[in-house]
Write a structure and sequence with these properties.
- The protein has 2 domains: 126 residues, PUA domain-like; 134 residues, Trna Endonuclease, Chain: A, domain 1.
- It is 21% helix and 32% strand.
- It is built from 5 helices and 17 strands.
- The strands form 3 sheets. Strands 1, 2, 3, 4, 5, 6, 7, 8 and 9 form a 9-stranded mixed beta sheet that branches. It has a 5-stranded mixed beta sheet with strand order 13-14-15-16-17, sandwiched between helices. A 3-stranded antiparallel beta sheet has the order 10-11-12, with helices on one face.
Length: 295
């Protein structure tokens, strides 16, 4: 890593972003900005990034700092600013946007040599789910106080706890109504079975990302993925999610919960993967279990 050529800020110091670029160069618009006058790369983070899906920025319990790459639509690529971070040949200087055009210098970082970045899902500025790059960085100066330790093992939480999951899909303008239907379906199913159901929180190894299942029945060991639509797209997604989750949860059985019968072909698809189809009909729920296999 090259040394800083000309940099005099100390962690905690604030200044106008305009002034920062006048001193050290670089673009005033980009979140990742090459600053040739200082021989470094300027990184900017702040609450405004949430509208573009930059939800993974922040210090972690292991002392690292995770930083989402650039690119506001479609899958992020390892080009331009993202490639510059991954190369690890220039110092990285982190700034927090504090409002009014002012930024706070948080300190220097270096990219992790063994795992420079990982990929995870996040919405873009149009709310479509895409793949983003999250860089794993290590502070060389004080950056900020670490967050509380994130869980590293699967745990059960109440159904009422609704965190964002990387396995979700955005449905553009229908998103709110779609999730409302799904939440109502889950509540009616819990009332139908007459016992407490939970969710699973599944941390992804090597990342700060946690996946959240829809339903887990502690009494039967059944893992259930609910969908607010019985369309083929959503049934196929539910099947894929179950296959992903079961690697960590190790359930006794799998099921997809729908508000209506999805059609014989999709039920057959679920059965071929040993997944039960549970669907609502006339105020009750019907279980279509896979046929018993003969050894």
């Amino acid at each position: 890593m090259t040394a800083l050529l000309n940099f005099s800020l100390t962690p905690g110091e604030r200044l106008k972003r305009r002034e920062l670029h006048e001193r050290y160069g670089g673009s005033r618009q980009n979140g990742i900005s090459s600053a040739p006058r200082s021989g470094c790369i300027l990184l900017f983070t702040g609450d405004a990034g949430h509208q573009f899906g930059y939800d993974h920025d922040g210090p972690q319990a292991d002392g690292s700092f995770h930083y989402t790459g650039e690119g506001q639509v479609n899958d992020q690529e390892l080009i331009r600013g993202n490639a510059a971070i991954a190369r690890g040949d220039r110092p990285l200087l982190l700034f927090r946007m504090v409002g009014g055009g002012v930024v706070e210098y948080l300190g220097r970082l270096r990219v992790d040599a063994e795992q420079p970045y990982y990929r995870t899902d996040a919405p873009d500025r149009t709310k479509a789910i895409r793949s983003v790059l999250v860089f794993k960085l290590w502070p060389l100066d004080r950056v900020s106080e670490p967050l509380p330790a994130f869980e590293r093992s699967v745990r059960q939480v109440p159904l009422e706890r609704h965190e964002t999951t990387s396995g979700r899909v955005e449905v553009r303008t229908e998103t709110v109504e779609f999730w409302r239907r799904e939440a109502g379906l889950v509540q009616r199913y819990q009332a139908f079975v007459g016992r407490t159901l939970v969710r699973n929180a599944i941390p992804l190894p090597g990342t700060a990302v946690t996946m959240w299942t829809d339903i887990y029945d502690p009494m039967t060991g059944e893992l259930i993925e609910a969908k607010g639509s019985a369309a083929r797209f959503h049934v196929r997604m539910a099947l894929g999610q179950l296959l992903d989750y079961k690697r960590s949860v190790n359930p006794k059985s799998l099921a997809v919960l729908l508000h209506e019968h999805p059609g014989d072909d999709l039920v057959s698809l679920l059965h071929e993967n040993n997944v039960t189809c549970i669907h609502e009909t006339q105020g009750t729920f019907v279980r279509l279990s896979p046929p018993q296999r003969r050894d």
